[in-house]
Amino acid sequence: MMDQPHVQTRDDREPSHSEVDPNAPRHDEVQAAWAGKAIGSAALILMLANLSSSLLGFVRQAVIAHVFGAGLDSDAFYAASIVPQMFYDLTIGAAVSAALIPTFSGIVKLRDKEALTDTAGSVLALAWLVLAATVVLLVIFAHPFMAGIAATCRCATGSAELNRSVEVLRVLLPSLFFLGTSAVLLATLYSVRRFTAPAFAGMLYHAGIILGAVLLVRPFGVLALPLGAVVGAAGQAIVQVPALVRNRVIPRPRLRLTPEIRGILRLYLPVAAGLLVSIVGQIIDLGFKWKLGRARLTDMQYATTLTQFPIGIAVAALSFAILPSLSADAALNRMDDFKDSLVLGIRVVLFLTVPAALGYLVLATPIVSLVFQSGHFTPANVSRTAAALSGYAIQIPFVGIDQLMIFAFYARKNTITPMLVGVLGVGIYVLSGYLLIPRLHVFGLALANTIQNSAHAVILLALLLLSIGKLDRRGLSMAVGKIGLAGAAMAGGAALLLSLMSARVAAGGFAAHALLALPPLFLGAGLYFATAALLKSQEIELLLGLIRRRVAR
Prior knowledge:
Elements: H1 29-36, H2 39-68, H3 72-110, H4 113-140, H5 142-152, H6 159-172, H7 174-191, H8 196-201, H9 203-215, H10 217-220, H11 224-238, H12 241-246, H13 259-291, H14 296-331, H15 335-372, H16 379-393, H17 396-411, H18 416-468, H19 476-502, H20 510-534, H21 538-552
């Protein structure tokens, strides 16, 4: 049957600036440009998807904490999980933002969807070949690989810990193939501004692990977790296929070294080189955590999950929403539009991440107790996880800026600069870890990570400004000042209420944890948004406008 032409409706194509309602309230040219590129709508979809996925991720961690606690089994799962993550990043993960979306977006803008399906198909075929070979080799050499990691990081692991990690790793590895497939499909859909299906697909990975822990733990023990992860990863790829069909951008897998593929490889090679250094850093990081003692790896993983919650919602959502437009602006040399989108991205990221960082700093222990303390997760685990969370929290706004800076370089087809700064960041982390861990233990290791990511953001920002010029006359300084004032009101109010309630609420179960965490959290959030509204923050009005327009559709 002959394919029918795809007719674009007003709701499924990118509106031009002239199609944005001229009577809609606009505070400056930046917001008009943002709305005109439909970045705001995409960001809202991605935020909602990441919020849903992050909440499900919390459920996943809480279920694992309840079923396995923090010990040999959970450490084995989290240690084994590091390996497929390493190779996912190295083979395909980082390529999504560094090379695939910029290249795919340029093809759509300058050519057509037919060219996109050809290029995406070639990428998919190449990815399948590399991923399949990687999975087979890692399954065969899982034991010496894990033993090598343990030896490299000087981890004091016994045979029981090592054998358990190897067993978990071999079951988990097929998820790498499915996650890589999902990444190529995601990049294809993002390049044609279709965000809903790929954005929500990530929830299936968490759901698979949860179902595995609940339904399969009796017959399989800790292997229930990697089994669930494999099923969830497969579902993450499959669920994107209908969206590809609807938009007529189904990749046609054919292994061809076209000029576009060579361009993608040229963009990605510096990233891959940087990731090799990053992998060394991850191995050293694993050694740091193992040397802190048993269960410290799990405790810090739970703190990482909490830290990633606001980052996933605000930072990842806005970054991926902005990247296709930044890439198109860079390809067409529209630098004013490029700067407009970037500055508003920075403003909105700071508006959403600063309160998250302050909330964690003030309420670390109540939040960790509420989310994780049950079953085998003890008060000692809560104390260590809260200490790690306090160290990680400081970096949250810097990570937001950092991600936007990386994507700005990627949009300009510059992957070498972020790679070199990333290599420097690994050195900063290792040095900071060696200096801080003996004195501050878990908090010190988390703080070393914060120093690394914050320095990375500041350096990239300085280098980008040298390249494109100042981001002046776009309201950034005023926005930062208002965010700071609103944050101070939030932190003060939350800390005061927590102090008052701590003297009146006896330590106990879930109800006590909820009373100590939720009222200060809600008060702090209310004070933040109320202060921002009183200061007439343009970011809050923009976000509310996006929500109203989305609901009205």
